[in-house]
Amino acid sequence: MSRYRVAVVGATGAVGTEMRRLLRDRGYPASEIVPFASQRSAGRELEDGLVVRGLADDDSIGGFDVAIFSAGGSISREWAPRFAARGAIVVDNSSAFRMDPEVPLVVSEVNPEALDHIGKGIVANPNCTTMAIMPPLHALHVEFGLRAMVATSFQAAGGAGQKGMDELMEQVPGLLADPLALQRRGAEAAATVTDTPVFGKPLAFNVVPLLGTDTGNGYTDEEMKLQNESRKILGIEDLAVSPTCVRVPVMVGHSIEVRAQFEREPTVARALEVMGAHEGVELDDVPTPLEWAGRDPVAVGRVRLDLGDPFALNLFVVGDNLLKGAALNTVQIAELLHERGLLGARAAA
């Protein structure tokens, strides 16, 4: 069996830590796993015994077969092409290359054939919210022909990384100190939370219906990802999408309510059958992010016919944003690159 040198860029973050664990636990055929992070982390020994290298120069990044990135868009834009130029295939978890027509945007169970066209040596991971709904919607699209969807996401603090989870937890004790203020004097209670750099408003015991940066059309970049990435992954250029993204006080696990409209009239029984048979999907009558945290598949429940349109279904999807939404799909793509014989030759060239 071929064995590969693997770089993990952003190895010390929440997603990077999961990537390293998954490479070990899933038995990825690596001869060496090298963690990269910022220069200030260089030399740090991680809990798995690996020692962090700083991103320094091109001489330090040669000889890798695959490099998996979760270090943010600016790092990816600078370093992913440099790793690719030195022979690695890069699997990038940021938004930097997702809509580049020369970069495949891949959900491992949905469109693995896109890996046959890696023009720049880079593969993109979708946004974690888009990722969760793609396997069940792909199953429904094949069966009924997807035309449009209304998608409302309820996204965990962990979608903003460790800093998001830390901000949520830091807000809880102060608000718990005065339960009556939470019940009767909400503005007063909220005013006690003065440090909200991640979410802009208090998230503990609250819901924040603004997630991402405004794009000028009233929708945020996070919401536009749901439209644009879904179209690219499913190959439906004119898919109509009405997205709303909301941040909720959950540590890990994104939830999405989807109203999906089809070309052919669906039935609940057949929808459950095809989704339950699709790789990466499990059925659960009432899926919740707490119960599905730490689990690889996405869960689908509350499947019902729309009350006003016989060609539409409503469904509720839950997925761990740190696993399938990020780290797991990245490692699965690296596995597909191995299985499809796409690694090694590029590095040798």
From TrEMBL:
SMART domains in the record: Semialdhyde_dh
Associated pathway: Amino-acid biosynthesis; L-threonine biosynthesis; L-threonine from L-aspartate: step 2/5; Amino-acid biosynthesis; L-methionine biosynthesis via de novo pathway; L-homoserine from L-aspartate: step 2/3; Amino-acid biosynthesis; L-lysine biosynthesis via DAP pathway; (S)-tetrahydrodipicolinate from L-aspartate: step 2/4
Binding-site list for NADP(+): 12-15, 40-41, 179, 321
Binding site for substrate: 155, 247
Top enzyme category: oxidoreductase
Catalytic activity: L-aspartate 4-semialdehyde + phosphate + NADP(+) = 4-phospho-L-aspartate + NADPH + H(+)
One Gene Ontology biological process: diaminopimelate biosynthetic process
Keyword terms of this UniProt record: Amino-acid biosynthesis, Diaminopimelate biosynthesis, Lysine biosynthesis, Methionine biosynthesis, NADP, Oxidoreductase, Threonine biosynthesis
InterPro entries membership: Asp-semialdehyde_DH_CS (IPR000319), Asp_semialdehyde_DH (IPR012080), Asp_semialdehyde_DH_beta (IPR005986), NAD(P)-bd_dom_sf (IPR036291), Semialdehyde_DH_NAD-bd (IPR000534), Semialdhyde_DH_dimer_dom (IPR012280)
Keyword Oxidoreductase: yes
The EC number(s) this enzyme carries: 1.2.1.11
Domain Semialdehyde dehydrogenase NAD-binding: 5-118
Residues binding phosphate, per UniProt: 98
GO molecular function annotations of the record: aspartate-semialdehyde dehydrogenase activity; NAD binding; NADP binding; protein dimerization activity
Entries under CDD domains matching the protein: ASADH_C_bac_euk_like (cd18131), VcASADH2_like_N (cd02316)
SUPFAM superfamilies: Glyceraldehyde-3-phosphate dehydrogenase-like, C-terminal domain, NAD(P)-binding Rossmann-fold domains
Annotated active site: 128 (acyl-thioester intermediate), 254 (proton acceptor)
Subunit comment: Homodimer.
Family affiliation: Belongs to the aspartate-semialdehyde dehydrogenase family.
Free-text function comment from the UniProt entry: Catalyzes the NADPH-dependent formation of L-aspartate-semialdehyde (L-ASA) by the reductive dephosphorylation of L-aspartyl-4-phosphate.
NCBIfam families the record matches: asd_B (TIGR01296), PRK14874.1 (NF011456)
Protein's UniProt name: Aspartate-semialdehyde dehydrogenase
Organism of provenance: Baekduia soli
Gene that this polypeptide is encoded by: asd
